[in-house]
């Protein structure tokens, strides 16, 4: 059984993440998706809770032809111990898929194979750009899968972001 691990903050989950996961689905038997910084929410850079991110990912991947697990993972203060922390929370896996330089470095130092999938349209497909567009009142819906648009509307994600970004 080949399992691959993919971690992100998914603030929010977007079409770049979706393309990477569709690619990984062709390479492994099962995928473990770690929701990083699970403890963070209601911040301008991290507006959505771990549970809301679970919802976005689970709905967006409903028709993926590869079993997957979504596991929230809180940050810890010691990078040197982080991979052991991740492994204590996730089903066993042999390959980590990431393009985040720190994640790549920590997994490599722990002796775990790392693959770096290509970045898709990085200029626009980024959580930073999507949050910027929401705050600026610009169209953001085309950058995320349709089920994620529905989750964000259901939880009033844009309204939350606008409210927490206000000065008092
Ligand atoms: P992210 O949501 O920005 O990205 C997730 C993955 O998707 C990354 O590999 C990224 O390169 C990729 N990606 C982003 N845009 C893409 C695009 N357009 N096309 C293709 N791929 C794209 O999340 P992240 O910042 O990489 O998440 C890492 C998580 O690991 C964070 O939550 C971080 O806090 C956590 N972490 C924690 C510790 C610790 O607790 N000590 C240490 C290291 C990492």
What can you see in these coordinates?
With 168 residues, the chain is of the alpha/beta class. 39% of the residues lie in helices and 14% in strands. The protein contains seven helices and five strands. The chain has helices at 15-25, 50-60, 82-89, 101-109, 127-136, 146-154, 157-164; strands spanning 3-8, 30-35, 68-72, 95-97, 113-115. A five-stranded parallel beta sheet has the order 3-2-1-4-5, with helices on both faces. β4, α4 (101-109) and β5 form a beta-alpha-beta unit. α2 packs antiparallel against α6. The longest helix has 11 residues, at 15-25. The mean pLDDT is 97. The protein binds nicotinamide-adenine-dinucleotide. Residues 7-10, 16-17, 20, 36-37, 75-76, 79, 82, 98-100, 102-103, 106, 119-122, 125-127 line the site of nicotinamide-adenine-dinucleotide.
End-to-end distance = 53 Å
Please work out how many helical segments DSSP would assign.
Answer: 7
Measured by DSSP, the beta-strand proportion falls in: 5-15%
Q: If you compute it from the alpha carbons, what radius of gyration comes out, rounded to the nearest whole angstrom?
A: 16 Å
How do the strands line up in the largest sheet?
3-2-1-4-5
Going by helix content, strand content and strand pairing, the class is alpha/beta
Produce the secondary structure layout.
Blueprint (H helix, E strand, L loop, with lengths): L2 E6 L6 H11 L4 E6 L14 H11 L7 E5 L9 H8 L5 E3 L3 H9 L3 E3 L11 H10 L9 H9 L2 H8 L4
Parallel strand pairs: 1-2, 1-4, 2-3, 4-5
Helix pairs in contact: 2-6
The chain binds nicotinamide-adenine-dinucleotide.
């Amino acid at each position: 059984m080949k399992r691959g691990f993919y971690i992100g903050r998914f603030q929010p989950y977007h079409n770049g993440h979706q393309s990477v996961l569709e690619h990984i689905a062709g390479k492994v038997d099962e995928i473990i998706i770690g929701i990083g910084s699970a403890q963070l929410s209601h911040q301008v850079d991290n507006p959505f809770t771990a549970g809301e991110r679970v919802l976005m990912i689970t709905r967006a991947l409903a028709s993926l032809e590869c079993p997957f697990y979504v596991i929230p993972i809180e940050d810890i203060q010691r990078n040197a111990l982080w991979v052991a922390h991740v492994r204590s929370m996730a089903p066993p896996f042999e390959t980590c898929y990431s393009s985040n330089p720190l994640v790549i470095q920590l997994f490599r130092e722990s002796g775990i194979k790392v693959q770096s999938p290509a970045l898709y349209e990085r200029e626009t497909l980024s959580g930073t750009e999507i949050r910027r567009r929401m705050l600026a009142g610009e169209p953001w819906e085309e950058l995320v899968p349709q089920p994620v648009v529905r989750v964000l509307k259901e939880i009033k994600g844009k309204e939350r972001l606008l409210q927490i970004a206000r000065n008092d």
